[in-house]
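Notes, Module 5: Reading structure tokens.

Key idea: the token line is not a picture. It is a compressed description, and you learn to read it the same way you learned to read a sequence, by spotting repeated patterns. We will look at two proteins. The first is printed below with its tokens.
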Amino acid sequence: MAEEKAGYQYTLVVGPDSPDRAWLESVLMRGGLEVAACTEAEILAMPDVVPPQVVFLDDSTAREERMASFANLKAFPALAGVPIVILALDADMDSFSGAITRGAAAYLVKPVAAEEVVAVAHKISGWLRSGDRTEKRRRLRRPLLMRVDVEVSGRAGVVPGQIVDVSGTGCRVELQGPVERGDVVRLTLYGVEGSTDLSLAAEVRWQRRAPDGTQVAGVKFTGTTAVLAGRLLGTLTAHS
């Protein structure tokens, strides 16, 4: 039975029984995912929950209530370490940054395209299944999906990309253009409505091309940036 539970992979949708939650369930199932759904009160009252791969918190309340629900889910033992994606109505920077700094894996604003929801779910599920990181590395990192622009020192222009996971010392970025090992770079972070005007200095420690052709780079934050990055990207909160 324990082996059966360990092998059961599904996505959990948490939110009030509403048309929004029904839509989210339907989208994820059409995207090829096993889905379960319940309210916050229901999940917190379950004594024996098989941990999901990803939780989607579907929430249309004010920021304070939403973050209280998020904190309750993070503190629930059965969901310890499970990535949580927040879907909310608020598109302001405070709502976005507040979710990310507290450890959300992604923050999506409703209404959101079905394709984006499915892509986020598969991206995070794929990160958890990936065999190119040891269990030790997995514990030190957490998935985080955030758009960035990457400026390479001494090179004109920027390379668009997306952070896919973070640790206390660096992050992994998928890029739409090449970078080289040793490049000194600056990552400009984006929120839901555009640039945050916040940048992080880093150095490219490795780069490779993934099987699907995506350019992937591991960067290490330099100088005092590591402390700032920990606060902005939620690694200090997530592992404190």
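Here is the second protein, with the sequence above and the tokens below, as before.
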Amino acid sequence: MLPGSALEFLNWDWSRIESHYQGLRSRNLSEANIAAWLADWSRLKELIEEGQSRLYVAKTLNTADRQREQRYQKYLEEIYTPAEQQDQKLKEKLLASGLEPEGFAIPLRNLRAQAELYRDANLPLLEQEKKLGSEYDRIRGGQTVEWEGEEVTLDRLFLELEGADRARREKAWRLGRLRQLQDRKALNDLWVRFLDLRSELARNADLAEYRSYRWRQLLRFDYSPDDCRRFHEAIEAVVVPAASRVIDRRTRTPGIASMRPLDASADKNGRDPLRPFAAVRELVDKSAAIFHNVDPVLGSYFDSMQSERLLDLDNRKGKAPGGYNEPLAAARRPFIFMNAVGTARDVETLLHEAGHAFHVFESAPLPYYPQLQVPMEFAEVASMSMELLASPYLTTEHGGFYSEEQAARARIDHLERILWFWPSMAVGDAFQHWVYEHPEAARDPDNCDQTFADLVGRFTPFIDWSDLAEELRAGWQRVLHFFLVPFYYVEYGMAQLAAVQIWRNALEDQAGAVQWYRSALALGYTVTLPELYQSAGARFAFDARTLGEAVALIESTIDRLEPRA
């Protein structure tokens, strides 16, 4: 019998786990027993996945703890990789049976694609890819500087970039970028190792290049690399001019002749930055109030995360950078990881990651693990929509963080950054297409530096990088997606466009829009990607017309909020 929790399962060795795989392989499949067989396989798979997730969370909470890292690596080698081999055999068994349980058409399509891509020779390479990712986390997690007599993380240092004192902002910005440049060679060396490994993955799968491999690995059935290029072009045509208009308004501020990267997070009127909370406890409590206002059921989900200790939100030395939501598959629970330092961005990050967490809760009743493997293009709809659905409840009147004036200011800043985000997303996605279309050239980091700088100039011409050439050229190294999750970038742009459409629905009927949103999350991956978007009240589209409608709504809302701010 399988254990009741992944914590108990982590004490199992491979021989005990393998016996369960042997039992699943030995059973004859029929209409009468396929549901029970799938449930048993799902439970085993969930325990294995949650074991990996828990060890991953543990090592990112403290990148300096070598024992945590070693335990994670041991699990990958002794449990996770052998399980992948056994899962391939079960996929083949299921596909050969010709059986299709109810609600399993899309998972079967996905399993078929995974089975076709699978190669035994790639298992140690995929394991090695995770190890290289841990090395990236260790390098980035160890980046600290001395600031005013105190050793601080770069996340804490960049808090200064929101300040009104421009000289102080510049000092902090340059200090942080100098520290990042100190790891430039180490990250360049790591980059080449990633590229070589990924080229080998593609060759082993009989594919000419890694992008084709990754497209199949990510189960991208509904759009192509050419569609991504058209998205880039639409952003260049529609969003870049709008983002430039925002920058133009900001540079009318006395003393600012152009928008420098160190100015992007500061208030355009020279006001001190918003400091919505002083301690993580306050961040949690006020966010909980916001979620209860959005929807009582969503609020109850967040309450359970608190009571079950599924939040680690504060920033500290040795913690891996960034933020994420990690599903705990067997428990059907989410875990949120963050690096909060007291900013308005931290509020947005928690709203964002909570959207992912709500996705886990809403889809939890689905019976089979493959139904829960939601495509990232829709997973990010869950998170980005929550940022906007929560926006009416940010004020203290609703138990939130801000006065009416402060809330208007926070919302304007958020909406302006959406306009800046699409061009930045285009930079990141176009960079990755270049990398894997020209893998030999991309092995030379100097070529990566130049290509990244050129793309920044194309899509964000409104940012002035004069006399910051090296900082600009090395900027790609700060994007963890390029190292850890290649091609996971365009999803943000697609999802942001859907989120604006869902927000537009909420402006007319907040309760109705939230209900559509929750209903779509509950589908997991039992329908196609365009159908998931439609269920949430959005179109799966990324053309200039759809972008134009979204941009018009954002700009008109900013104009409406300006007098209040």
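Summary for the second protein:
- Residues 198 and 313 are 33 Å apart (CA to CA).
- The first strand starts at residue 144 and ends at 147.
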